[in-house]
UniProtKB/TrEMBL annotation:
Keywords: Coiled coil
Entries under Pfam families matching the protein: DUF212 (PF02681)
Coiled coil: 81-115
CDD domains membership: PAP2_like
Identification of the protein by name: Divergent PAP2 family protein
InterPro entries reported for this sequence: DUF212
Species name: Pallidibacillus thermolactis
């Protein structure tokens, strides 16, 4: 069994699950579909790569190529999660609202047709910086706990 992979994948699953009670606390709604969504608190991307790097650091040491690869890979994933993917999500919101905005500019009455449109693009793609940090901290804790469980 590859313990670092098990650690990272378990951490990703736990982070995805934690989005559900977090959403309930912040918005007052149980949204079980959050388990399958990207975006939200904590970032499962950040959690997974942070747990992997932490486990490797504890097992092999911070001076190893393994740790260097995991860290650089993790930083790229976290940058992408909060940078590029977040910008894509914000652009998607604008695209989804564009047709309604064009009708408004034409002076047409809003019949709320667009509120129920089923072909809207997914708007939850990326993360706010705090969600990435939350995921990274959760991942570090998870990697530490997994190391203690597996290696002792």
């Amino acid at each position: 069994m590859n313990k670092p992979i098990v650690t990272a994948l378990t951490t990703i699953g736990l982070a995805q699950f934690l989005k559900i009670p977090y959403k309930k606390i912040t918005d007052g709604k149980w949204e079980w579909e959050m388990f399958f969504e990207t975006g939200g608190m904590p970032s499962s991307h950040s959690a997974g790569v942070s747990s992997l790097a932490t486990y490797i650091a504890l097992r092999r040491g911070v001076k190893t190529i393994d740790f260097a690869l995991a860290t650089v890979f993790g930083l790229l994933v976290m940058y992408d999660a909060q940078g590029i993917r977040r910008q894509s999500g914000e652009l998607t919101i604008k695209v989804n609202d564009l047709e309604e905005e064009v009708e408004r500019l034409r002076g047409e009455e809003d019949h709320h047709y667009h509120d129920e449109k089923s072909k809207r693009l997914r708007e939850r793609l990326g993360h706010q910086p705090i969600e990435v940090v939350g995921g990274a901290l959760f991942g570090i804790l998870s990697g530490f706990i997994a190391y203690k469980l597996f290696e002792n």
